[in-house]
Amino acid sequence: MKTANLIPGALLLVATTVHADETFRCGQWIANSDMSVSELLSKCGQPDDRQSSTEDVMVRNKHGLMQKTGETRIETWTWDRGPNAAPMVATIVDGRIKSIERGR
Which of 49, 61, 79, 102 could be disulfide-bonded to 88 (CB atoms 3.0-4.6 Å)? Predict the structure, then answer.
């Protein structure tokens, strides 16, 4: 019985560990997803590539049908860090950094 209680907790711990953001060096600074967008720009400079899209925010209404309640803006900023390092990719949702990851 005690072992059965530990398994969901262990799975939750693994799931949260897998989704941890990466940190990157921008000159003398460390960039991470806890920064504001303006702080990221001031420390890392303008990205080499910017892509953006707008997606509908949908919720189920009381009749069980999907209904649009708004829009969300998703931006992907990429910094080329040279031939010896993977690009840094920041995903920004509605003006807040959601993640910073290593690009391909």
Answer: 79
pLDDT digits (tens, 9 = 90+) for 37-61: 999 999 999 999 999 999 999 999 9
Q: What is the CA radius of gyration of the chain?
A: 18
Q: In this structure, are strands 88-93 and 49-60 parallel, antiparallel, or unpaired?
A: unpaired
Contact 70, 57 (CB under 8 A): yes
Residue 49 contacts by C-beta under 8 Å, 6 or more apart in sequence? 77, 78, 80
Domain extents in the chain: 21-102
- Give me 32's structure tokens: 């991470």
Residue identified by tokens 């890392």 is 44
- DSSP E strands in 1-104: the ranges are 24-26, 29-31, 49-60, 66-79, 88-93, 96-102
